[in-house]
């Protein structure tokens, strides 16, 4: 069955939904943190409230099957939920604007703000589930690299508009304007969601909640085979492990290396985002030429080289120019790795269960940025910064070993990837 819409229509839709996914993340963290700080809230509470409100992102896999089991039929099975959630996010943000503009800080306001932030994060995490599923269902194999790139571009653009534009509005008009502007940004995506290509109905949708919960794992195991499934999940876990190890301590390293907060903020903020966007564009172009397998290999090598840039900075110094080079290489590679990785995850999902399967796979990846990065401080303290960053680059080797089996250089796709022509429903 041909993909709905034209290539341009599909990529525009994916980019717009990326903006809708990226903006709530910074609203719930940076804008909320800025408002609480300006309201005189204690540092202890500022440290707790945004983190508490972010918990739904870690548990979204628990309710992902509900979106597969009970799709909203209009405009289609994915966009129905997207529209509802985008309108809900805008409504929560408008309530936050009213709270920030009319109510004086106090215990009751803090409780209300925490509740609203929790609702915001829950709706945002749910939107992430359905946006990932829509992108997976919409894009044909040949466009998944480009689709991953434009999604990341939209995602980063949404984050940047909220963090930069929100603080500018807050400085000029007050914090109510920051939240109101974020609501308008979310509403601006709604027309794109309405006009996005319509997904065809599924021939064999899940018919029960049990099927929506058990079916994704059963289908994945049947498709990949019991001998391949664990290795695929291990590849998902380890492919971006070097990113997690670097991100865990990069700021601490730069502080100890003597760089100022202003230098770190400029380079690790705007400069890094620009480099990541460039990486996603380059990654999308290369993916279209190299295909999934070779892209995963090339991008992983470039990503590991970014970690070695920090090793060189730690060993040889070089001041601000060397830091600019290291940050540029790291984030350029990060953008390329991210584009290839998203394409890999999409290739492993069956449209019948794409909401649940993508949420499961992305949750496994999240472990590499959290639990697998826990020993980072202990290791860096014992071997020093330069050797630590070399180790983070070497942490890419297990993924390369797995790719020899699962995505060989001369292969045409990932072993166990979903193939609609052989879908055994």
Task: Provide a descriptive summary of the structure in words.
With 425 residues, this protein is an all-alpha fold. It folds into 2 domains: 7-201, MFS general substrate transporter like domains (Growth Hormone, Chain: A, Up-down Bundle); 212-419, MFS general substrate transporter like domains (Growth Hormone, Chain: A, Up-down Bundle). It is 78% helix and 0% strand. It is built from 17 helices and no strands. It has helices at 7-38, 43-53, 55-59, 64-69, 79-102, 107-138, 144-173, 175-195, 209-224, 229-238, 241-256, 261-316, 319-347, 354-369, 376-383, 385-394, 397-406. The longest helix has 56 residues, at 261-316. The radius of gyration is 22 Å and the shape is globular.
Q: How many helical elements? A: 17
Low-confidence stretches: none
Structural class: mainly alpha
Strand content is: under 5%
**Whole-number tally of structural domains:** 2
Under CATH, the homologous superfamily of the largest domain reads MFS general substrate transporter like domains
Highest CATH level, the class of the largest domain: Mainly Alpha
Radius of gyration: 22 Å
> What is the ordering of alpha helices and beta strands?
HHHHHHHHHHHHHHHHH
Number of strands: 0
Please describe the biggest sheet, giving its number of strands, its sense, and whether it closes into a barrel. Answer: none
């Amino acid at each position: 069955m041909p993909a709905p819409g034209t290539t341009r229509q599909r990529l525009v839709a994916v980019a717009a939904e990326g903006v809708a996914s990226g903006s709530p993340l910074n609203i719930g963290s940076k804008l909320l943190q800025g408002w609480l700080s300006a309201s005189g809230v204690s540092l202890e509470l500022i440290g707790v409230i945004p983190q508490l409100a972010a918990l739904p992102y870690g548990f979204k896999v628990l309710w992902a099957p509900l979106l597969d089991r009970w799709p909203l039929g209009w405009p289609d099975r994915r966009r129905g939920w997207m529209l509802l959630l985008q309108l809900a996010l805008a409504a929560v943000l408008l309530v936050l604007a009213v709270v920030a503009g009319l109510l004086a800080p106090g215990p009751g306001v803090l409780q209300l703000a925490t509740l609203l932030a929790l609702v915001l994060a829950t709706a945002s995490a749910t939107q992430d589930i359905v946006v990932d599923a829509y992108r997976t269902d919409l894009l044909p194999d040949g466009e998944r690299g480009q689709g991953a790139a434009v999604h990341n571009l939209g995602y980063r653009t949404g984050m940047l508009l909220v963090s930069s534009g929100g603080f500018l509005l807050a400085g000029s008009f007050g914090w109510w304007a920051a939240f109101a502007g974020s609501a308008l940004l979310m509403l601006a995506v709604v027309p794109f969601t309405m006009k996005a290509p319509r997904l065809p109905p599924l021939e064999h949708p899940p018919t029960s909640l049990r099927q929506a919960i058990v079916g994704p794992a059963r289908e994945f195991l049947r498709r990949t085979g019991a001998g391949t499934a664990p290795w695929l999940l291990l590849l998902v876990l380890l492919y971006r492990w070097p990113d997690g190890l670097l991100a865990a301590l990069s700021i601490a390293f730069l502080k100890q290396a003597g760089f100022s907060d202003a230098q770190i903020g400029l380079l690790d903020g705007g400069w890094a985002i620009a480099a990541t966007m460039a990486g996603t564009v380059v990654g999308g172009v290369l993916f279209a030429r190299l295909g999934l397998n070779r892209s995963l290999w090339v991008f992983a090598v470039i990503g590991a080289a970014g970690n070695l840039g920090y090793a060189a900075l730690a060993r040889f110094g070089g001041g601000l120019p060397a830091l600019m080079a290291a940050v540029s290489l790291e984030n350029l590679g990060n953008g390329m790795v991210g584009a290839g990785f998203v394409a890999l995850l999409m290739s492993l999902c069956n449209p019948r269960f794409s909401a649940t399967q993508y949420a499961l796979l992305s949750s496994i990846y999240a472990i590499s940025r959290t639990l697998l990065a826990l020993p980072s401080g202990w290791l860096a303290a014992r071997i020093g910064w330069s050797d630590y960053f070399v180790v983070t680059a070497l942490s890419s080797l297990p993924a390369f070993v797995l790719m020899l089996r699962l995505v060989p250089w001369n292969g045409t796709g990932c072993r166990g990837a979903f193939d609609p022509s052989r879908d055994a429903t």
